[in-house]
Amino acid sequence: MNAITVFVHAFRLQLRDRLNLALTLLTGTLFVFLYWMMTGGGGSTSVRVLVLDDDRPVAVAGGTPVAAGAAVRAGLGEIRYPNDQPLAVVERVADRADAEARLRNREAAALLVLPAGLSRALSGEPGPPAEVTLVGDLTNPSYTLAAMVAQAAVATIGDAYSGVPPRVAVAERALGDSGGRTEFELYVPGLFLVAVLLMLFTAALSLAREVEAGTLRRLKLTRMTAFDYLAGVTATQVLVGMASLLVTMSAAAAMGFHSVGPWWAAMLVGLAAAIPVVGIGLVVACFARTAMRAYLLASVPFMLLMFFSGSVFPMPKIELFRAAGRVVGAFDFLPTTHAVAAFNRVMSLGGGPGDIAYELLMLVALGLIYFTAGVILFRRTHLRAEG
């Protein structure tokens, strides 16, 4: 048998495994399509910059009145990509506390505070330079772009009223301890997420092995229900996942990672996130009769949960609607979206259980949804088929 014969044989086998072939050919295309949709159909994403404008325009004798605050807001919107899409979506706000809460929720990337004396400082009147404050969560990947745009807009207005020494200074204020994080500490919370996500594979594989080994045939002779079986599997997987997360956190702490908030609150986030992740693993197992097929299928939601959670690269907030004062986005059905936000709020911003109540509630709700879907599908596929 020569190489050509082997090639023909292997090619035919590959064509017979249609699901494997389809996943191999189309998964990359699916992710490209999703990101194309998120960037506005092949364009670029715009970051949201909140502006608290306390500036008061100043009348100049024999000249044009100076309204620096309005000029900065206009300048923010004029900075654009080569395709003419704005880099920043500018939103004027009136309450600083509310604006900072939105930064913590990652509904915006940065807050620019324009002081009352900005126009006065640029008009040439005597007095100290005006200080513009830039507020943000420095662990938010979108903050860097927002800060660059904001500083460029302020610098442009400052140059228009050139003064020596400069009449405008920009002060950066980090939310929580986000400004004091090392590069290692910035990326470790994302690795905690990986420890939780791996349960997707273990849950799917554990069920697929039972199906492959014929164990379900023996279990059908008992009074076991789909709920009983999957609840037991879920409890086991969550326990293993929490042990994995505890080991990972202990290793990170030993290597110098510092959490601003309580470690037990971060463990609570991991516990809440484990339930929907295992639920997704149960759903995957409903479509697999072998461990290899389960592993292959589980890789698709794993990548979706990892790359579209905001832990790998900045994700635009695609608003669907608002509920109870919170923005519900297109990717809020992913448990990792809420887990990333909660981990960051605890470990970088020093939040406690009260600060992550919304994320915990969403994780529990998603867990119930995915677990229920797993029970229904498992009953209709494997248990009914085994009967």
How would you describe this protein?
The protein is an alpha/beta fold. It has two domains: 47-175, abc type-2 transporter like domain (abc type-2 transporter like fold, 3-Layer(aba) Sandwich); 183-386, no CATH class. 58% of the residues lie in helices and 10% in strands. The protein has helices spanning 3-16, 18-38, 68-78, 96-104, 118-122, 143-160, 183-197, 199-213, 215-219, 226-254, 263-285, 291-307, 335-347, 357-386; strands at 47-53, 88-92, 110-114, 130-136, 168-174, 319-323, 326-329. The protein has a five-stranded mixed beta sheet, with helices on both faces. The protein has a two-stranded antiparallel ribbon with strand order 6-7. A hairpin with a 2-residue loop joins strand 6 and strand 7. It is elongated. The mean pLDDT is 83.
